[in-house]
């Protein structure tokens, strides 16, 4: 397979084994990434550089030529640092989006007292925009963009709105892993305003996110994604109903064997790159 003919898969996730494991999908995505790479496709993975990720152990290093971008979040510029590591037992690259204000802390979504970080909304927006901005800088157009985790939930919407005319994303198909809510907190009444202040969007683009909670993030992501993976067997019935009712939406049903056999998910990647 020549370099020019290789299909490109991009995974954007807030968890990936061995760096951070929140759900079983951290391991599933690891196996899926390796299998995709071994198949001859080009694959890159993007995730946040949470402070609990040990840079020395995992051999992260800054990519100076890619760093230096400023990402606008709620009308404020935030510098983006890019770090990279090679996934153990594979030669594929994992890119870590870093920012001292958002990710230096040694916690993930909650502080030492188990309180939800009060800037998680800004961290969400920053990560989603950072992931897309760095792909633009790569000049690397992916056929498939698989979004996993609530911190990726704005990406399917951005791809259909603010970034829809970007050449690198014109032919991209998005997948979102739908899971049950992982936090009960609310981002606040100004959440939608913060999104609108961060990108060229219309109010109708973000209306599904107005609930400003985990359920709203999932609903919005499912609306805009081209494909939705049922990430849990007991996924909320309302979410399932909305996905099944959406015109042109394709649902990938939950499979209890994914942990041992990721072939069905790999087949989805293959099928989407052949369309």
UniProtKB/TrEMBL annotation:
Keyword Transferase: yes
InterPro entries: Starch_synth_cat_dom (IPR013534)
Keywords from the UniProt entry: Glycosyltransferase, Transferase
Pfam short name (any one): Glyco_transf_5
Starch synthase catalytic domain ranges (all copies): 8-240
One GO molecular-function entry: alpha-1,4-glucan glucosyltransferase (ADP-glucose donor) activity
Reaction equations catalysed: [(1->4)-alpha-D-glucosyl](n) + ADP-alpha-D-glucose = [(1->4)-alpha-D-glucosyl](n+1) + ADP + H(+)
EC annotation from Swiss-Prot or TrEMBL: 2.4.1.21
Keyword match Protein biosynthesis: no
Protein name as annotated: starch synthase
Native source organism of the sequence: Taibaiella lutea
